[in-house]
Amino acid sequence: MFATADDMRARFGEDVLVQLTDQDGWNAQAIAAVNVKLATATSIVEGYVAKYHAPAPGRAVPPLLIELTCDLAYVRLHRALSDDLKDRRDQAMKQLKDISTGLLKIDQGLQDIPARGGAVIVPDRPRTFSRDSLEGF
After folding, report:
1. Looking at residue 103, what DSSP letter applies?
2. Residue 112 has what pLDDT?
């Protein structure tokens, strides 16, 4: 996953998440409820950024992906969507679309486009008709 329950707690506050999960406190059930929404949000984010960012052991998750995943999970924790929540969701989805088209870079602009597999490089032969070969004509 791109974000954890601790990321959500740091971003939105423990009290808010406890209220949204209908739990008595920040316990295993509250964390599990948040993790379910994070898993769904991670699936959405992965669908948009898979060609630019593949999770690997030891590789840090870019802060933008953590933020977008948390925002989508936060919206999904609500039962009814206010205009503010719709705006938050729409903004996150717009950024994901921009990432998928290459308009927005997730690694501070340092990410490389992966090499196309199967490309064959063939040396070119000398030109048949050039200035040198047609010199006397």
Report:
1. S
2. 54
Q: What is the structure's pLDDT at 86?
A: 96
Q: What is d(CA 41, CA 92) in angstroms, rounded to the nearest whole number?
A: 11
Provide the H-helix boundaries in 50-109: 63-77, 83-101
**Tokens representing residue 7 in the block:** 């990321």
Q: CB of 19 within 8 A of CB of 84?
A: no
| Contacts of the segment 85-94: beta carbons below 8 A, 24+ positions apart | 92/68
Which residue is listed with tokens 């870079």? 105
Amino acid in position 45: V
Between CA 14 and CA 111 the distance in angstroms is 34
* CA–CA separation, 103 and 82 (whole Å): 29
Q: How far does the chain reach from its first CA to its final CA, in angstroms?
A: 70
Q: Is the dihedral of CA 57, 63, 65, 68 positive or negative?
A: positive
Going from N- to C-terminal start, the domains of the chain cover 5-101
Choice between 104 and 78, residue whose per-residue pLDDT is larger: 78
| Structural contact between residues 106 and 67, judged by C-beta atoms closer than 8 angstroms | no
The pTM of the full predicted model, rounded to 2 decimals, is 0.75
